[in-house]
Design goal:
Distance between the termini: 19 Å
Helix content: 40-55%
Largest sheet: 4 strands, parallel
Number of helices: 13
Shape: globular
Strand content: 5-15%
Strand order of the largest sheet: 2-3-1-4
Radius of gyration: 21 Å
Order of helices and strands: HEHEHHEHHHHHHEHEEEEHH
Length: 335
């Protein structure tokens, strides 16, 4: 949750630092073993903020940012082709290893996959869980969604048809898009006559690991301030408000507390086949300073092993008050 009124979500700082430690460990494993690619799917169903920050923290060989995929209208096959290009380029340098990170909600950013999922959502909303059989579901699809669905591995077809969450969304935590990309990349590489390497890949999903950690000092202070602000709003009789704390890149004693009506953050979205009011998704803008920093640096990481290891969360010492790159970069734009 990030918008004009909210500078960052509470828990974001903690989660990205946990994931960054894990991804960095895999970077060192890849560069020492020199035999496998690590495909890492990170939590974040509707936005790629966690993936972007983790990339800035760890310098993977590739980070697929969902909002960029959507802006460029990249299909599933296009993303697979980009990954295969990376594998071929690194293999020519004798490097059959690397680290690739993707957001949990990547498939929903691909126009072709998004249309397919939308059709499946409407189908399941109309027919219920009795329609979880891929052979039955495909009959309800029209071209080109039918062809796309048939091109997917059987396991992934089944995952797309799992019962939806309470909001009518695909359960992306159970949809193994990193395995999908591995399978399709293997197939794509077989079509590349210039590829002479050996492609071995290991899949990872980092989700709850980032939600169960002891919080960073920043998140401790932030949530403490939000709690006090919430109590003050209740005492003042302000209901239907979201407690906010701003000026977060300064010392906590300089933070500014307040609140905004919940309605200013809402828009209409389709859920379970119906339009309902929900809080507007806070997506990455390709004009965000944090994304521009990443876009400027990523080519330097692509064919090298410039893996950065931020280490575990610190609660004392010089690094304990270090803020994440996203908050600092985007706050500078606001100021």
């Amino acid at each position: 949750l990030r918008n004009t009124y909210i500078e960052t979500s509470f828990g974001f700082d903690t989660a990205v630092k946990v994931y960054s430690e894990l991804v960095a460990n895999l970077g060192y494993d890849a560069s020492s073993a020199k035999k496998s690619y690590h495909f890492c799917r990170l939590m974040g169903r509707s936005a790629s903020h966690i993936t972007l920050e983790t990339a800035l923290q760890t310098h993977p060989n590739m980070a697929v940012i969902g909002e960029e995929v959507e802006a460029n209208r990249q299909s599933l096959l296009s993303v697979v082709s980009d990954i295969a290009d990376l594998v071929v380029e690194r293999s020519k340098l004798g490097k059959d290893f690397g680290v690739i990170i993707i957001p949990e909600g990547l498939v929903e950013f691909m126009p072709d996959m998004n249309k397919l999922i939308s059709c499946l959502n409407d189908h399941l909303a109309s027919n219920g869980s009795s329609s979880n059989d891929p052979t039955e579901a495909v009959k309800m699809l029209e071209s080109p969604e039918r062809e796309l669905f048939n091109s997917l591995p059987a396991e992934f077809q089944t995952q797309l048809l799992l019962d939806r969450d309470p909001h009518g969304n695909v359960r992306l935590s159970q949809t193994e898009s990193e395995r999908l990309l591995i399978t399709m990349t293997k197939s794509e590489l077989k079509k590349r006559p210039d590829y002479k390497g050996k492609f071995s890949a290991i899949s990872h999903f980092f989700g709850y690991e980032g939600r169960c950690s002891l919080p960073t000092n920043f998140d401790c202070n932030y949530c403490y301030a939000l709690g006090h602000t919430s109590a003050a709003l209740i005492e003042a009789g302000c209901t239907g408000y979201v407690a906010t704390v701003s000026n977060l890149t300064t010392l906590p004693e300089q933070w500014e507390c307040g609140g905004y009506p919940l309605t200013v953050m809402m828009n209409m979205e389709r859920r379970k086949g119906k339009m309902v009011p929900v809080i507007k998704k806070a997506l990455i803008s390709l004009e965000d300073p944090a994304f521009k920093i990443y876009a400027k640096q990523r080519d330097a990481w692509r064919l090298t092993e410039d893996y950065r290891c931020p280490g575990p969360i610190q609660h004392s010492g010089n690094m304990s008050e270090e803020l994440n790159f996203t908050l600092v970069a985007n706050s500078e734009m606001s100021n």
